[in-house]
Amino acid sequence: MAFSKDSPNGTPYLLPATAAQGLANYPHARVIPGSPRVVYVSGTSSRRGDGTYAGCATDPATGAHSLDVREQTAAVLQNIGTIVRGATGGAVGLEAVVDATVFLTDMAGDYAGMNEEWNKVWPDKTAAPARTCVQVAALPSPKLNVEIKCMALWPQS
Ligand SMILES: CC(=[NH2+])C(=O)[O-]
Fold first, then answer.
1. Are 54 and 75 in contact (CB under 8 A)?
2. What do the Gene Ontology cellular component annotations say (predicted)?
3. If you take atom 2 of ligand 1, which residue's CA is the nearest one?
4. Does the predicted interface ipTM exceed a cut of 0.90?
5. pTM for this structure?
6. Nearest CA to 15 among 70, 116, 87?
7. pLDDT tens digits for range 40-70
């Protein structure tokens, strides 16, 4: 997954065709070249490239969605890892994330489950990104209960 080098504002962007596409005109990530390379990752969800959502089961009779924050968080973090690897030519992934903002639609119901998945990726808080977690009234789809935006650094020699 290569990133574009020809952005009009001079900051390359990552827009992989096989990943879930943005819902408006924004890339998956924007990259500040140099050392360290700085990767700004757009708010990322569990939406897959085919438009389906990890961690969402829809009742065909009622249309009601059943959301699993653990499955969604695991998928979000996996998607972010893919984006960071794409933006750094595979050099670094989730371990390079230094700052993250977590958006939950139900802090009371989902904070503990989200933390469980987060802590699987970062079992050591000394290696984990700085993090902020907030509750939001809604995310772009009712099939989502968590979205994460973040920034990663890749110190190139
Ligand atoms: C989904 C998302 N990142 C946005 O800004 O709509």
1. yes
2. cytosol; mitochondrion
3. 43
4. no
5. 0.93
6. 87
7. 999 999 999 999 999 999 999 999 999 999 9
